Amino acid sequence: MARWLMLDVDGVVVNGRPGDGGSWATDIERDLGISPDALQSVFFAAHWDAIVTGRADLGDVLEACLPALSRSVTAVDVIDYWFARDSAVDEAVLADCDALRAGGTRIALATNQDHRRAAYLMDRLGLGRHVDAMVHSAALGARKPDRAFFDAAAVRVGADPGDLVLVDDTARNVDAAREAGWRAIHWTKGARLARLVAG
Questions:
Q1: What pLDDT digit, counting tens, does each position of 71-85 carry?
Q2: For residue 13, which of 124, 125, 138 has the smallest C-alpha distance?
Q3: Which residues contact 86 (CB under 8 A, 6 or more apart)?
Q4: 4-16+88-198: which CATH topology?
Q5: Residue range 8-54, pLDDT digits in tens
Q6: For residues 35, 37, 40 and 42, what is the CA-based torsion angle, rounded to 10 degrees?
Q7: From CA 7, how far away is CA 194, in angstroms rounded?
Q8: Could you give the CA distance from residue 113 to residue 149 in angstroms, rounded to a whole number?
Q9: pTM of this prediction exceeds 0.85
Q10: How is the chain split into domains, by residue range?
């Protein structure tokens, strides 16, 4: 078994909206009066890379973008709505994490996240009780699939690349991890983590 099992979050540990697994923004126009297309173009396309690599603050950017999206909600309203609805935890994955850790495997979340959602995932959603660490893109200054993410993540957990196994649902990230010298497994929904890493 490798020294560290590195798990992607969205698509592996967390799967969208509780109840149906849909996108957190499915009903945002009905609930907050924000067009999903406008949110994509005004906020995500223009600013997400800076936010997710730690060069800009999520709340500050949202506040600046809101006049073009809605005049009736605040940045805090949007963030609270987003985080609460992007929170369907795969309990089977967490159970496998607990079992693997009990057997001596160290587990880290290796994920593209801004600082605020990273803290929410670990503390409010409780993922921190099931893993040993999180390495997230905003803290590393690089995002998957960039090579810099994988190099920095290895340094952060104090492991050689060959001692790391990534489980990720995005093929580009799996390929990039392998190019960085990690082992990597492409996750598909419904798989069992313990079985995958034992194979």
A1: 899 999 999 999 999
A2: 125
A3: 10, 14, 16, 17, 24, 117
A4: Rossmann fold (3.40.50)
A5: 999 999 999 999 999 999 999 999 999 999 999 999 999 999 999 99
A6: -70
A7: 12
A8: 12
A9: yes
A10: 4-16+88-198, 28-85
